[in-house]
């Protein structure tokens, strides 16, 4: 097809890059050479072709490490373990965000719906969502994040008495985590799906589906592009159009129960959507 020649040209260029700068992946040099607008358009073109996934661009293994994830982990090393750090200097919308999540969660939990025994907060950070949304509903929590500093701050400071109800903390990258089977009533992913390639997000959702208790629900709340896909090379995140996210979810074998836009954010903020699925 028309895009294949361009795709091959990129691959030829990647092949010539230094091994130390992630050969066959989106290298530092490539990021600084390509205009961001052109690269976003290229990703958008790829997304229009069924079954063509971002992992063709971002997920080549280089000496056992993915540069896509390496950049993300490096970025979060400099993020403070605080609400301001978790909200990226948009702390003023934190309560609006939490209230939107509480109301959306309420639709799916209760008699005849998902139970309230246990939830898993993926990409929990210091526990902002756990504390403000999940702990008031669930008897116990399990929390996962790739940054040890965030988890320690959650347990020792931020969660307060709620910390006694945490059954387990997982220090993991989400793409490498396999949750226990049939364990959770709710699995919550907020502002973390954007840090996974399409392939890894799809595969995690497949694993997460197996970890749900009867009537359990998986929630994704994340930034969504107004069109196509956009890559932020600084924190190594991808924002996808809602339709692209839906396609990944459905390819993973999950059924979408409801979709709702987070209201109350300023126009300066990328649209945030909530998706419930099982």
UniProtKB/TrEMBL annotation:
<dbReference type="GO" id="GO:0071885">
    <property type="term" value="F:N-terminal protein N-methyltransferase activity"/>
</dbReference>
<dbReference type="InterPro" id="IPR008576">
    <property type="entry name" value="MeTrfase_NTM1"/>
</dbReference>
<keyword id="KW-0808">Transferase</keyword>
<dbReference type="Pfam" id="PF05891">
    <property type="entry name" value="Methyltransf_PK"/>
</dbReference>
<dbReference type="InterPro" id="IPR029063">
    <property type="entry name" value="SAM-dependent_MTases_sf"/>
</dbReference>
<dbReference type="GO" id="GO:0032259">
    <property type="term" value="P:methylation"/>
</dbReference>
<keyword id="KW-0949">S-adenosyl-L-methionine</keyword>
<keyword id="KW-0489">Methyltransferase</keyword>
<comment type="similarity">
    <text>Belongs to the methyltransferase superfamily. NTM1 family.</text>
</comment>
<dbReference type="GO" id="GO:0005737">
    <property type="term" value="C:cytoplasm"/>
</dbReference>
<protein>
    <submittedName>
        <fullName>Methyltransferase like 11B</fullName>
    </submittedName>
</protein>
